Fold each of these.
Amino acid sequence: MEPLVIDGSHGEGGGQILRTALALSAVLQRPVVVKNIRAKRPKPGLRSQHLASVQLLAEMTDAEVRGASLGSSELYFSPGLIRGGRYSVDVGTAGAVTLVLQTIILPALFADGPVEIVIRGGTEVPHAPTVDYAENVFLRFLRDLGADVHLDVVRRGYYPRGGGKVVLRASPFRDLPSVRMLDMDDEPVDGVSISAGLDPGIAERQRAGAEQILRSAGVSVGKIGLQRIPRSEVLSPGTSITLWSRRGYVGASSLGERGILAEVVGKRAARWYLRQIAPMAPFDANMGDQIVPFLFLARGDSSVRIAEPTEHLVTNLWVCSQFFGESFEVVKEEAGSVRLDVHGSSSGE
């Protein structure tokens, strides 16, 4: 079969194009060539977390791969069947484990048996979802669809040394249902505030800052837990706070920074959360692009509302259309949100 050629410089031109192309290649058994990988990033080409994803998925599918090296701008990937079993991958340093998850979760659900994957790297790092967001927003969405998929955090990994460890467990779930979610009711916000290797009081102050902003906006606050991790249990110290809606799929996070008050870190997460719930859409901006491949593979037509459009959403829709055709529509709404309608590949004609 001739490979499908994907231009990695399209749209936002980042690693998401590669992640989605690889996931769909594995599920659809379609060879791909991804060119101009991450062409619009300051350091283009494959970085450690992308290479880890390629190597892991190649092992799971016994794929033929060419161009899998650091800095490579072009990759050929031709997969075989997706095999269940136990796998392990080390991203190295603080490369984001959640970005590896974005590559392998979909193939894991289409494997021929249960999958258990140990991933080592960064669990809370800049420019990537936290593991708490992955488990309590994205994977919860999949569980609500009927998937048996969970993420266990064995050890936290903060920038710059990483060293985190998570375990993904998933059972086959190939019959993806269509999704119709257009509204979200008022509901409590839960979360977790973490101080790892630093003053334990930082976690409480982050939570206090978040709760102040949320309550002043009239948002009901549920349980925002505290985790205080000893310095001996992390390679690099760090702090973070992640918030999530109890039923809708809206989340927000913020990472501690040198010179930034803990209360400010918490307030940042809360303000982003408020921005996402303002249109009362069931999916936040960051969830929008992550759910796209699942909607295209669903057995029926889906219609969802997303808090706001992003370049990542537009780009991921383009990647999926290379595999499935232009079987979607994006409708902008007055509240700033968008409605996404997708004709699932299993819908029939």
Amino acid sequence: MSIKIITDSTSDIGLAEARSLGISVVLLKTVFEDGEYLDGVDLTAEEFYKKQAEAKQLPTTTQPTPADFEDVYRNALEDEDDDIIAILISEKLSGTFQSATIAKQSFDRNIYIVDSGTTTIGLRILVERAVYLRNQGLKTKEVVDILEKEKSSIRLYAYVDTLEYLQKGGRLSKGAAFAGTLLNVKPLISLADGTLHACGKARGIKKAYSQVIELANADGIDFSRPTCLGYTGDPTPFQPFKDLVCQTYNNKITLTSTIGSVVGAHAGPGAAAIAFFKK
């Protein structure tokens, strides 16, 4: 018996990396005015942000269908005693969880679906945790029980470099965006309970770095479990933030990842985030 782990592409785990982890990825689609693109396949993160900058309307995403999940389930269940754990984007953010649940009804097998309550690098670290537990030899139900318990301790904090995309998405008025740009304001956001929340603002990028770290310190980071830094767009502006975080935590951050379209559509390029399990 083996445990097959499945996630969706909002985890920002690429297909090559997924193969190395021994997991499968169900793809969402990113929708621009000129058509649909398979997330991370037809459109890389770099290409996404380039198209985003040129687009008149914000891109959206479409969830996988139950048939998409049925195909992945069928391919994963190689042996009669294989089990599946699907770890997915928050049900509050996408219908992906619902599609996975509908697809499960076509199989008389042990298929467990975990609503991560998060997405992007927050989802990624929960998947990494599942891979570790599986590789330690735990049984399927033991892995699921730990994930369900620990997912509530995941924290994600980020700063946004530009107000343009929050304004385009209707989350900020034009006047507020203009004033904020003049004052060099960098909004701080958190992802909790499956939704994005404003959790402060900083005057200038260096202050944004320090305030994100302060938010993380207030929770306390459990370095015995996966941690991840993420960025949107060009990685070059992200490097000073990464350097400061690594210096602050003595290089204990385990992962770095691009942030894809789900958060990137609202944050725009130049944003950065940290995701971790709270102590």
Amino acid sequence: MTHLKSGFLNLLHERGFFNQCTNEEGYDAYLAECEKTGTPAVAYLGSDPTADSLHIGHLVPVMLMRWFQKYGHKPLMLVGGATARIGDPSGKDKLRPFLTEEAIRQNSDGLRKCYQSFIRFDDTPTGAVMVDNYEWFKDVGYLDFLRDIGTYYTVNRMLTMDSVQTRLAREQPMSFLEFNYQLLQGYDFCQLYKRFGCRAQMAGADQWGNITSGTELGRRKYDVELFGYTSPLLLDSTGKKMGKSEGNAVWVREDKLPAYDYYQYFRNIGDADVGKCLRVFTELPMDEVRRLESLRDKEINEAKKILAFEATRICRGLSAAEAAAETARKTFEEGVAGGDLPTVETDGDIALTEALFRLNLVSSKGEAKRLIAQNGVKIDDSPVSGDNVVLTKNAGGKIKLSVGKKKHGLVVFR
């Protein structure tokens, strides 16, 4: 579409958030009317609480919702306390492990903390609301659900969904439990429409089938047009999913990943991914984004520093971003150990492989051994070799460990 009326959808196209929309012309007209009258539109983003933190692979639709709120609209952040008991089969090869009530509660609390870094929750007309679909599912009877909702779905249609087709093509089993997931998510959408006037669901591209389950139910049961909007999955220039770093998720929560490591993830991305990440993970004006992404050779490092700072500022706050940037500056430009480097404390001697693993500089002790054998590990900036190196307290009580040129940590002796 070349002539969008709403400022919000124009921004999504410009910054690379657009993948597909059920009826973009209709959604654009609806949003433009809301913007013209100052009436907040309502949209929701859902996530099942299968972990206690988001990672950056989840953040594209979260940043989309952040912009949605900035344009004067109201975000609903849905936590699937009910659907987590079943498991979304989208992109999965097997049934998700069942979670206990306590695990679901703890994970839901963790997701709320993540969302609060990006979305404003308050009682204003545009303040976000966090809702749990267990609220409306806990009292729904099986027979009532089949009669009231199941009659609007056909097995023929359900079998065409990508999540089902993928399992069938691979000859992998799909439980009847998982097969029902699309009905439950469709029901969520309609419940949010009834309760909050929610007209749109935002999600990543892999949720298209579940989204259209809700738009179809809205049309058939409630005679209303609901809209579905998806953002692209976050891939790097090699086609791999972003958000993983040597097998470790780049977590949003500080207690899962220090701010310095979060900063360094963006500082170390490939040159070809700088522009994409500036568009998605920062709020810099597009003129500045275009200037930064046009830099080449050594100058691109300045763009990466700005990207890392801005992404960390939004996720972890200004002081954390400043501290991470200063630690990086001291570590890489002055050659000294910055104060916010990842740290492991010990009361006595510690094996080098154990220290590297506990600092998250490697994903396993086996990887640590391989890197040591390849002269890829340094102790206080000096290469080290040997299979059974043990670190012993020195005069300063601190030892700096480095893996390659970009990953560093401190062993502190108490």
